[in-house]
Amino acid sequence: MSGCVMDPYTYIKSLTEEELAELAQKCETTPAYLDKLACSHKRGQPRMKPRLAALLEIHTDKKVCRWESIPDEWALIWPELVGMDGVPSPDMVSSDAVSPVEA
Fold first, then answer.
1. How many CB atoms lie within 10 A of CB 27?
2. What is the dihedral of CA 33, 87, 96, 69, to 10 degrees?
3. Structural domain spans, the chain
4. What ranges make up the beta strands (E) of 1-103?
5. Cβ-contact 63, 10 below 8 angstroms
6. Residue 14 contacts by C-beta under 8 Å, 6 or more apart in sequence?
């Protein structure tokens, strides 16, 4: 499962409006919702649902992986991924890595 190179915020913000619209359509959502999720992720408040995280992984050709989209809970949601080649250990991926905003 290697190939993951970006967090959702970085990837989504790198897209043109047309690319974002195409990705949103493939992920069965809207460009505005993807943008909102990306900004939440950047603030350290990932709120992505598992289905959308999986669709994002598929439709970004694994540039954004599920563990980047749901950093605190991915191992609970997809325990079958733990220990697979190219998958980080659960304690290596956390929302602390996404620069949370201090309260």
1. 20
2. 10
3. 8-98
4. none
5. no
6. 6
